[in-house]
Amino acid sequence: MFAIFFHESMNPFHQTVTSFPTVIYTVLLIICALYWVIAVLGLVDLEVLDIDMDGDIDVADSIEAQTGIAGVLFKLGLNGVPLTIVLTIIAIIGWILCYYSIYFGGALIPDFWPIELAYELVILIVVTFATVMLTAQIIKPIRSLFSKLEADETKHILGQVVVVRSGIVNKDRGEALMNDGGAGLLLQIRATGDDEFVKGDEVVVIEQNKERNLFRVIAKSEFSD
């Protein structure tokens, strides 16, 4: 079945998908495809993209960086849906637009590398803009679905016992892992008042800060009392 991809008649296809700028979306599409295959097999989940902030690294810096990325996604209309889904849609649309723009439009461009390069750069810019705009429109109908799922998940998290993963948890920084029956859910947490916890401590989630996307916790013993 796969022999057709290696037939001589497929040479124009191979040349187009591995040439600039289509190759950018080809690589992204391959990465997304591999991710979903591995995810279906249950070997990876969304937390695979999380950075281990254990030790002396300030977790607050990580949150600020995520907030910056979230801000860009919000301005582009790509918020409210998991990043893996957004990237997959971008990869598919971008690859299709780029491939056919180069495949058909490239034949009309003179065989002179400065002109070819200029055309390819224009295609990359136009396709990227069009891809982002189309992706934003596609995810609009499903954004409310994920909002509901997130609200249900938050209700499930509150009152749960989680285990501290970072070196320390105080009012300024901290991470914890919640057992969700799978690979675990990584949470950004903060202690209440002057409390401090260390790696391995069990704490209870009592409150969510939606603006900063983090949770307030107290000691398990205090919650039991």
* Multimerization status: single chain
Provide the residue-averaged pLDDT: 78
* CA-based shape: elongated
Strand content: 5-15%
Percent helix = 40-55%
Q: Using only CA atoms, what is the Rg?
A: 23 Å
Strands ordered across the widest β-sheet: 1-3-4-7-6
Distance between the termini: 65 Å
Write down the secondary-structure element order. HHHHHEEEEEEEH
Number of DSSP helical runs:
6
Q: Which structural class best describes the helix and strand composition?
A: alpha+beta
Features:
disordered N terminus, OB fold (Dihydrolipoamide Acetyltransferase, E2P), 225 residues, single chain, 2 domains, 6 helices, alpha+beta
